[in-house]
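Hey all, sorry for the wall of text incoming. These are the two entities for the joint prediction.
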Amino acid sequence: MSDAQKTVITLICERAVEVNVDGGGACPDVPGMKVIKFPCSGMIQPLMIEAALKNGAEGVVVCGCQIGDCYYREGNRMIRERLLGDRPPTMKKGTDRRRILALWLARPQKDRFISESKEFIAKLGSLPAPEAK
Amino acid sequence: MQKIVDNHPLKAFNSLTLMLENITNKVMTSKYNPFYYHGALPQYYLWVLYLSGLLLFAYYIPTIDNAYFSKNLVNAWTSVDYITKSLPFGGVIRGIHRYAGDAMVITIFLHAIRVWFTDRYRQYRWLQWVSGIILAIFVLFIGQTGYYLVWDERSLLLTRMTAGAFEAIPFIGSGLKTWFLNGDQITNLTLSNFLFIHIGLSFFLLFGLWVHYLRMTRPVMTPPPAVNYILTAFVLICVFLFPINSGQMADLNTQPNAFEIDWFFLFPYALLSQMPVGAYWAVMVLGTVAITALPWIMIPKQPAIETAEVVLNKCTGCSLCYKDCPYQAIEMVPAPAGSRFKLLATVKDFRCSGCGVCVGACAFDAIDLPDLPDAEVNAKIKALLEAKG
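and here's what came out:
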């Protein structure tokens, strides 16, 4: 938040917590956040997270429905296991995991999404700058 | 293309379900939230019913008179009486069998309501919905035959009502009645037929469940042990608080006309006693057809599903999408001649939900949702990052 130039990318399931998004993909509730919606969080590839970080995102928020409840049965569990490295394809080893936040929030939990992601962004500010790639 | 995420007719109920589950999540964490095992709960009760039923079966005698025992009257009612009163823990087993049945109906109802409220019954899920309705009808009928088996006055009345209702069906009615009573009237053979229906059809449930699970990868069939203990505790509490007792022994020469009703299994009889037989069958058939048709009538114009598409020249045949697809919509077929790889993923469009889990599983960008290809996602990520920086 300290640096207005930095952007946090949110990859989110369209059935999970309801996040306001304006035309440009920005979330007005959380400054500096850009949102991309997916039909299911299971569609999010580790590659996409890596691409976002590589292209200069300060952090990535991955958000799906509450674990145990997925409209498509298992999507959120799959991406969770991929993030944890339990299910292929996994993240590259060099990925800075401190810059990834996974949230599992149901439709009505908007306040929690905002507070958690603001906290995450504040924490990102204190991390050392990512090495130039 | 307009997706039905937030504007399906039961939107309010969906939010209600999610709120409720949010509360249970806080109490018991998502790992033990019984709502997340709603389909596995009736399945657990089915095992309880099989086991307790096996124990009851060992002592149950399916006759209505003492054809083979001339000294004392031994029939279905007295054998049930013996199980309940003389056999150690017999009454408990009988109670478990009864209340687990009731609990199964309740959990099936909750399961159906939840998938309906959360909009998870349509399109690629139609097979689960329809087979679920058929399973539920069979569960009800099996439960009702259980009420005939104890052979008290209620059983006699229910048997007569059922036979009468069957007889009223045109063309096949008299045949159905003969099948049901195992003859033209109530005899010893009637009860052995009831026992056969009760046990035989309950094994049919396993076949039905197989169909119910067919298109699902890793169906959730077993709740965690902690949830099982709670489910068992519910049944046991009922067993000890409200012990089961039979009514008066049935006497074929009497005309019992009132009974205590078990609303979980016997509600059709409440209906049957209130209206003419023709109207009863009309209500039953139309009601069943209406519920079965819900996936097609609830949302008249359902947008077509954008099914996943394999990028043929990128697929390496690694099978990751095939393993992760939650609807068994991906099949690995031998790769065409000249390919560097052995296998090739193909999508069965009629099973695909368009969820994109296969996209997440693919490390080679070889499978795409047509309305959101991953190249587009990556381009969007770049654009969003460049817009400000």
